[in-house]
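hey m, so remember when u said the tokens were messed up on ur end? i reran from scratch. heres the input so u can diff it against urs
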Amino acid sequence: MYKKSHQHSGKMTEAIYLEVTEKAEAAHKAKRRVSVSGMLKILGVSRSGYRAWLKHVPSNAEKRRESVKAKIKDIYDKSKQNYGAPKITQVLRKTGETISERTVGQYMKQMGIKAQWVKPWTITTRDSDFSSKLQNILDEQFNPERPNAVWCSDITYIWTIDGFVYLTSIMDLYSRKIIAWTLSNTLEVSCVIETINKAKAKRKIEEPLIMHSDRGVQYVSKEYKRVTANMQCSYSKKAYPWDNACIESFHSLIKREWLNRFKIRDYNHVYRLVFEYLEAFYNTKRIHSHCDYMSPNDSEELYRRLQQNE
């Protein structure tokens, strides 16, 4: 049917589309019927081809393709329109679909959907000058063998119409779960202390724990040292954020996947958005390649079950 039209370049195809649209609109304004023969001639389609298209019955392959595309759109929407081809492929396979990542990518391109682009993260905290005493115990070993072996923390800013709001987060590196978070209007050390106390209240720490952070003034204060007295404090090298890449990456992620979509009004608006993303999606539903395409919660639950079986 479209053999002739396929020979046109992208610009020619767009020009033909505009010509058909203009003629149809002109006929509508003049209260005239649109000439099917005229439109077919512009499109380079024969009348017999047009009739064959009207009578066309989708094949089984076409039906399956449309069914898979519907599933892709459903998964994409449930991920808050964040998943790309790799994650969608994994979810499809879990439902029994046999499909390649390349095919999923092609379907997504045809449907005009794609994952959000990750902007490179940057340093957002000031550095304190305690360089000789602060050790990097973690040394970029981001894959501990159990939960509560290594936590990492960082602070990021969130712009609102009412002024900046600051998000302090603590991540368990085993599952990449955010186990505690706090919002504040200032960068005072009390916000970090509050977040650590929340994390302690949620987790029972029975073995020595590494607590990693950058060298911001909040993380080298007397109050911080007091609240982490039973932990091994680890610090990124000066002006080297890659030592704390996981939590830095998460803060970039929450902005890119969620917060940047909104014109945020004030502190309360930020709180609702962060709560919805973290508690209703990131920790509970969002699959992570690090967790073998499970959510952080599911990854930790699997660890607990395996420990009980052993």
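this time it looks ok to me. Confidence is low (pLDDT under 50) at residues 1-12, 127-131. if urs says something different then somethings off w ur setup not the seq
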